Amino acid sequence: MTVAEPLDLLKQNLDEKIFVKLSGYREMVGKLHGYDSHCNIVLGDAVETIYSLTEEEGKLTSEQKNHTLVFIRGDSVILVTDGENL
């Protein structure tokens, strides 16, 4: 299957692991269960990583949260790619 339109990438990866970069220093990896034309995404067995920078030391830290099922609002999506190399 070829990618003719942007959402074709999502169609090709239904029921596969994908990586989603989000606004607010967050990213998620999980199994793509569904999406729509607004790029709203539903992921299952997802791992959310939240990054933060400490002011006093200037160190980058991260926290991970597991989600059984999560809805990602399309206006927070910055990048979507397959999870093949994760």
Automatic annotation (TrEMBL):
Residues 5-86 form the Sm domain. Transmembrane segments: none annotated. The lineage of its organism: Eukaryota, Fungi, Dikarya, Ascomycota, Saccharomycotina. SMART domains: Sm (SM00651). It comes from the Eukaryota. Coiled coil: none annotated. Gene3D superfamilies: 2.30.30.100. GO terms for molecular function: RNA binding. It comes from Pichia kluyveri. This is U4/U6-U5 snRNP complex subunit. One of its GO terms (cellular component) is protein-containing complex. Signal peptide: none annotated. InterPro entries: LSM_dom_sf, Sm, Sm-like_LSM3, Sm_dom_euk/arc.
